[in-house]
Fold:
Amino acid sequence: MGQQRIVDETDFVIIGTGAGGATAARVLAAAGHGVVMLEEGPQLRARARPRELLDSMAQSMRDFATQTTRGGHPIPLLQGKCVGGSTAINSGIIWRLPEDVRADWIERFGLAELLDAQGLEETFERLEDELNIHETDAEVRGGNNERMARGAAALGLPGRVIHRNTKDCRGAGRCLQGCPNDARQSMDVSYVPRAIADGARLHVRCRARKLLLEGGRAVGVVGDVLGDDGRRTVGSFEVRARLGVIVAAGAVHTPVLLARAGLRGLVGERFQAHPGCAVVGEFDEPIGMSFGATQGYEVPMRERRFKIEALSLPPETLAARLPGAGAEWQARLAKLDHYAQWCVPIRMEAMGTVRRGFGDVPVVKYGPTAQDLERAREAVILICRMMFAAGAREVYPGIARRPEVLRSVADLAALETGEVRPSDFHMMASHLFGTACAGADPQQSVVGPDLQSHAVGGLYVMDASVFPTNLGVNPQHSIMALVWRASERLANAARIPLRQASGARATLRA
Amino acid sequence: MIHFERLTGFERSWADTMVGAFAPASGPGLAPSLGQVDYVGAFETMCRSTTRLAAVGMRLALWLSVLGPLLVWGRATTALALSPERRAALLGDMLTHRWMIVRELTVLLKLCASFAIFRVAALRTRSHYEDAQDARLADAAQRTPVEAHDELEDSGERARVRLPMLAQREVA
Structure:
C-alpha cells in the first residue's frame, strides 16, 4: 500500500485545534487569510462518541491520560487529542482572566498592550456572545451540583453557579466523554467549523514533527500522517506558510516543537499547573450524578489558592474511586446513584520543566511544594466538611495513610495532623501553562507581547504555554481572549487583499 | 520492537483472573456472572492506548498482583492459588499498601476492572448509575406525542429515545 503524502500551502499554518489554535484560525480566516489547521487526533462526530469511558478515552484523550510528570510521584496530565483539543473533553467552565493576574502580567512581564483593559473586556464579551456563555441553567444542574450548593450554603461559603459555553444543554452528564448532543460549544463545534466556513482547511491525524525555518523565519511544518489507530505512521505531510507558523499544541508539546527548531532560553521552563484531587461522598438518598451539567457549581477560594468544583464522573472512574475490593466494593457498585463527587484544582506555586526526550517524547518534571501539599490537605478537609454539611453518611477523602472512610466530622481529626507527602494524594492536572512564556524582555520570555518568537520571525505561539503564571481559574476563556487579540493584530499586520494569497489548495496523494 | 500491549497466553489468563478478582461472580452487590465481562479486552485496550511506560506499568501491576501473597503477606504462594474471596482481600490490602508503587499499580488494575464492568450495559443498569438520566428521559417521553418517537439512538446495548427539539426544550 502506498504512503500518503499531503502537501499544502497557505498564509498561516496552525498546529493544534484547541482553544488557542481554533481561535487563531477563526480570527485569521475571517480576516480573509488562508489558514491550514493541523490536528494530531481524529475528528469526532457527536453520534460517534461512545458513552463507555474505555472507548471514549482511547478515542479522544492523549495517551489515555497516562502521560505523567516524571519522578517518584507521577501526576497524570489530562489533554485532549482530537479536533477541539482539550475543549472537546472538558466541562466548558468559563472564567475571565482574574484582575490580579492581569495586573501581575502587565507589571512583571510587560504585557500592557496585549492586556489593555478595554480591549480585553470587548474581546471577552465577543467570545461570550459567540460561544453562548452563560450561567448553567437551573433545569440541568442535577443532583451533584445542587448538593454541593447545599453544602456550601450550610458552611457559609461563597459558592456560585458555573458559567459554561453551552447551547441547549440537556444535562447528558457526559462532557468528559464528549457531548453527545454537541451542546457544549467546544472548538470542534464552534470555531473550527466557523474557520472552515471562512475558507480554512483542516488536516486531521497529522502530527507535526518539525518546523521549517528558512533565513531565520518560520516557513512551514512537516510531520507524519497517522493511521486510524492514531499511532501508526501511514504517510507524511508538508505545509508551507507564506506569512506565519502558529504553534498551539499545548504547554507540553509546544516547547518540544520549539526546542526541536533550535529555540533555547526559557523554552520548556516555568511549567506550571493546577493539579487537583477529589473527594467522594455517599448519601442516603439518590444524588443522580448521571443527570445534569458535569460541572455546574463551584466555590472559589482565591485567597487560599484553590477552587472547589462539583465534578460528575462517569461510572467507570467513580467506581474506581470507591474504596475496597471484592464484596465491600461490589456492595458500593450496586448503588452508584447515591454518590457525589467534588474536586479541587489548586493554584500550585511549584514550577517544573518540559524537555524533549528520546523520540521527541516530552519529559515533564514537576512536583508540588510542601506549601502546595498543605493547601491540598486544607482543601480536601474543607470538601469533607461540605459533604457532611450536605448530608453525606460516608466520605472518602482519598488521602493515603489516613482512614479511607470517614463517618462524621469528628473523623476529620485524622486528616488534620501529621505530615503529608506527595505520594499521599491521587492528583491529576488538566490546566498546564508557562513553557513558552510571553513577555517584553527576551531574557525573561520566549515570545513577545504579540506572541511572536523573540528568536525566529514568523513563528507564533498561541496556547497556554505563553501564560507567564498559572491563573487559579479555568484557563480556556483567557487563552481564547489572548489569542483573539494577538490574532487580530497579526491579521491586520499581515494585511493583504482578501483571498489574493490564498488560492493554493491541498493535494492528497495516496 | 517489543510490543508491550500484547499479552502472552498465560498473562491473558492472569488478567482475566486478577482483574476479575475485584468483583467476583460469587460476591454480593454488583456481581457479574462468569464470562459476562471482558477483562482481558479492557486490559489490552488500555495497554494499546497508553504511553509505552504506562503499558509496562500495566504488565508490572499484573505480575505484582499475581505475586501479591509473597510480596504483601510473605506467603509462598501466588494469588492464582487463592479463593476468589482471598484474592479480593489481597487486592484490598494492596490498594492501601504503605508503598505508593504498590497502591498505584493496583489502582491501575482496579480502573481496568471498572472500565470492563461498565462496558456491559446490563451491569450499568444494575449499578443504578443512570437512573436519574433514564427518569429524565422517561419523563420527557411521556410528555412527547407518540408519533414523535421516530428515531432510536443506538448507544451500545441499550436503545434510547431521541426526542424532537420541542420536547427537549420542554425538558430542559
Remarks:
- Residues 497-510 of chain A have pLDDT under 50 and may be disordered.
- Chain A touches chain B through 66 residues (CB under 8 Å).
- Residues 402 and 415 of chain A are 7 Å apart (CA to CA).
- The first strand of chain A starts at residue 4 and ends at 15.
